[in-house]
Write a structure and sequence with these properties.
Chain lengths: 543, 307
């Protein structure tokens, strides 16, 4: 694909970004995008397990219809904690801040992001935000749900609402600055010959994500600030008793938080495109359609927020417009799924761990996306909104989709990031456990939702118990599916096989440098002469 | 209410069959595409699995194929859109002869009042076959009045009236849930809807005889708060007001509906009737939500009367 002169000294791992320096200072004050990616990985893993612990308590509580394990208040705080941690401190930063940070400069043939210090500052903002939100939890928690609906959150809730909001606000700025950094880097720091139409689809999707982060996140930051102002100073903004409008909050909140779903999903799509191509040893089918569907999703997803409000009293005709736009945003997602599937055609398909995660992603995302059509169909949404149907739907997208893709990406680029191979058979086993555990956890919730079990219920009617027990059983399998990679990936750091520069025979500039790369990524700036995914010029690796 | 596990919620309102039909159509589409993608992946992954000596063959993107698999989902979603929206429009337009029942949500209970005056808490008795219109508001936070067996739900928002309507089609007892998270005891803000034959309902409504009709209470409040000293003289007459078109001092014309009457009582200066001075004081904080509903019921009762 490109011409990087062979340099024996360079190949001997004489210096990599990992071993060039060892002190704590060299990590906490680093401006190397790869080290910052590792810092983010530590942060999001920590918050993921906190959010996961809350999920465990929720699922154990829901094994019986009576609210007997936790008190009402504790239960409400647990699902709030779960939502806040998973959405704002795990899912939104996960793929962009870890894989995006690590890979964007490598894929572009650049030495770092455009603003390395800003990148470090973003990590500190994220960690401080997370620490503040966690402090709110330790002091007593919040019971508003991650959606902070007014006037409950702004007037009636007794929890540490303002402190949590401050934490999310700071993490939001981390997200904005990261997006800005990625946009500028993509525009200004592409290697010679790397035209837009030669960019890996990973970059296209991350670019679309970054635009959404920069445009959308300020809105949620301001909205939550208004909640804090109303709460602290009793200014009537959302509380009708003080002259405010509670529905206004929902408009503002979902204006960000619906696109936020795509801020989580587009990066997953970025990962999927890379992995499908590599393990099919084939150019991604319909490259330009996949690329532009990312941009279409970014655009349309800003115009669908009202589909969260079909039963709020919003005008009938506004609801109908939001409904048709919500159907439209499904089309580019469908186009992507068809193209990924077609990429397998006449390829050379290798079902290694990352590919298993990605095929799992395609299946779960398809079901998650199709059940979104039920919610865009207003008359059905009236029945299923605010029930477990919604819970199942967005977990298929965010957990089945986004987390599967994140884990697939972590396995795929693990050799590049650490210089070590993950254990292949453990990887495949964990991917299967995850897929089965996930479906057993969340599929019963679709049925529960249509039967009418509302979400955020601490105690529920007796006829719902069978499905809830199935869901809890699935969650325990799912937990194993998360703990396995956590254990064997750490194990591989010491005992894993040493990774070659390009273990999977992948196209893409990041595979042309050593594993792990040196601090400045490339010995000399690569010059790109081929389209993306020039797999016809790479030998198929048989092993 | 059946405590046994069931696969399908009971169908007990006019909306249950059409919503279920649309749902089944969506299920069929979902099953078809999920199985199609699954089958394609399994088939392609096995047929083209990596084997020594077999090179992958580069494939050119077929634009006709791209257009086809864009157009087919597009057409399908249009079918879904028109089907679902048509049904939704029906859900939003109660028939003119619907019986109105008032609902006030509090943390954490449902207070219901029937036109005859009979009140109940966390229960809703309705007669079979009669269109019912719920006129709902909340005292503090947002709730949602969810009747799974009726396939209908409506958020109950403080500061406004929201409407939910249905015709019960099967006698029995069904779940009533609060579906919008509303604080500590959200999952205890539940109850039941009881569908009775019209005769049973009449007997039930007449049962206690202690509650007065909302319009009667409203008429007394109207005098008690001395509304009658202005309305009809310095202030607009209220006879035949409900449902009529009102000209405002800023030139706009609006229909006098529940939300307009509510606002005119609680925030009288928001909309001034053309030709009148903004003299009326606010009654916010002096009237409970139930009393506002009583006053509106009284104003509605002033139909077909000479001013």
């Amino acid at each position: 694909m490109t011409s990087i002169p062979y340099n024996p000294a360079f190949d001997e791992r004489s210096h990599t970004y990992l071993n060039i320096d060892y002190g704590v200072r060299s990590w906490l004050l680093t401006t190397d995008h790869k080290r910052i990616a590792i810092l983010y990985m530590l942060g999001i893993t920590f918050f993921f397990f906190i959010g996961g612990a809350a999920a465990v308590l929720i699922r154990i509580e829901l094994m019986t219809p009576a609210g007997d394990l936790l008190s009402d208040d504790t239960y409400n705080k647990m699902f709030t904690l779960h939502g806040v941690m998973m959405v704002f401190f795990f899912l939104i930063p996960s793929i962009p801040a870890v894989l995006g940070n690590f890979l964007i400069p490598l894929m572009l043939g650049a030495r770092d992001l455009a603003f390395p210090r800003l990148n470090l500052m973003s990590w500190y903002l994220y960690m401080i935000g997370g620490a503040i939100a966690l402090t709110a939890l330790i002091l007593g928690g919040v019971d508003t749900g991650w959606t902070f609906y007014t006037p409950y959150s702004s007037v009636y809730s007794n929890g540490y609402v303002v402190m949590t909001i401050v934490g999310i606000f700071l993490a939001g700025f981390s997200s904005i600055l990261t997006g800005l950094n990625f946009i500028v880097t993509t525009h200004k720091m592409r290697a010679p010959g790397l035209y837009w139409t030669r960019l890996p689809l990973f970059i296209w999707s991350m670019y679309a994500t970054s635009v959404m982060q920069v445009l959308g996140t300020p809105v949620v930051a301001i909205t939550l600030t208004l909640v804090a102002i109303e709460r602290l100073f009793h200014v009537g903004i959302f509380n009708p008793a003080w002259g405010g409008d509670p529905i206004l909050f929902q408009h503002l909140f979902w204006f960000y938080s619906h696109p936020a779903v795509y801020i989580m999903v587009l990066p997953s799509m970025a990962v999927v495109s890379e992995i499908v191509a590599c393990f099919s040893h084939q150019r991604v089918y319909g490259y330009i359609f996949v690329a532009f569907s990312s941009l279409a999703i970014a655009l349309i997803s800003f115009l669908v927020w009202g589909h969260h409000m079909f039963v709020s009293g919003q005008s009938t005709y506004a609801s109908m417009i939001f409904s048709i736009l919500s159907f439209m945003v499904a089309i580019p997602s469908a186009v992507k799924v068809f193209n990924w599937t077609a990429t397998l055609y006449r390829g050379s398909v290798d079902l290694k761990t990352p590919m298993l995660y990605v095929l799992g992603f395609i299946g779960l995302f398809t079901l998650g996306g199709l059940t979104g059509l039920f919610l865009a169909s207003i008359a059905v949404d009236v029945h299923v909104t605010d029930t477990y149907f919604i819970v199942a739907h967005f977990h298929y997208i965010m957990v089945g989709g986004a987390v599967s893709a994140y884990l697939g990406g972590i396995h795929f680029w693990w050799p590049k990031m650490t210089g070590k191979m993950y254990p292949e058979w453990w990887g495949r086993f964990a991917a299967f456990v995850l897929f089965i555990g996930f479906n057993l956890t969340f599929f019963p919730q679709f049925i529960l939702g249509y039967l009418g079990m509302p979400r955020r219920y601490h105690a529920y009617a007796e006829e719902f118990q069978v499905l809830n027990v199935m869901s809890t059983a699935g969650a325990s399998i799912l937990a194993v599916g998360y703990l396995l990679p956590f254990c064997y990936l750490i194990w591989s750091l010491k005992y894993g096989k040493t990774a070659p520069a390009n273990p999977f025979g992948a196209a893409g500039l990041e595979w042309q440098t050593t594993s792990p790369p040196p601090t400045l990524n490339f010995e000399s700036t690569p010059i790109v002469e081929d389209e993306a995914y020039a797999y016809d010029k790479i030998e198929v690796p048989y092993d | 209410m059946d405590k046994q596990f069931q696969w399908w919620p009971p169908q007990a309102s006019n909306f249950a069959p059409p919503v279920d039909q649309l749902y089944l159509f969506l299920l069929a589409v979902t099953a078809f595409f999920t199985l199609l993608i699954f089958a394609c992946i399994v088939y392609l992954a096995l047929k083209y699995r990596r084997r020594r000596g077999r090179r992958p063959a580069p494939v050119q993107t077929n634009h006709l194929l791209e257009i086809t698999w864009t157009a087919i989902p597009f057409a399908l979603t249009l079918v879904m859109f028109f089907w679902a929206s048509g049904l939704f429009v029906r859900m939003r337009e109660p028939p003119a002869d619907a019986m109105q029942i008032d609902v006030v949500a509090k943390q954490w209970m449902w207070k219901v009042q029937h036109p005859s005056g009979r009140r109940e808490i966390d229960e809703l008795h309705v007669p079979l076959g009669r269109p019912i219109k719920l006129d709902m508001t909340s005292e503090a936070v947002i709730h949602s009045f969810f009747l799974p067996a009726f396939r209908t739900k409506q958020d109950v928002v403080p500061g406004a009236y929201n409407i939910e309507w249905f015709t019960p089609t099967r006698v029995g007892e069904y779940h009533l849930f609060c579906a919008e998270y509303c604080g500590t005891q959200h999952s205890k803000m539940i109850g039941r809807v009881v569908v009775q034959t019209p005769a049973e309902y009449q007997a039930w409504v007449a049962g206690t005889g202690v509650d007065e009709a909302p319009a009667v209470v409203g008429a007394r409040l109207f005098t008690q708060f001395q509304c009658n000293t202005c309305h009809g003289q310095r202030a607009p007459t209220l006879a035949n007001l409900f449902g009529s078109t009102v000209k405002l001092s800023d030139g706009a014309a609006i229909t006098a509906d529940d939300n307009y009457l509510r606002e005119s009582i609680l925030a009288p200066r928001a909309k001034i009737v053309a030709g009148y001075q903004p003299l009326m004081p606010t009654y916010a904080g002096q009237l409970t939500e139930e009393q506002v509903m009583d006053l509106i019921a009284y104003i509605k009762s002033l139909h077909n009367q000479q001013p």
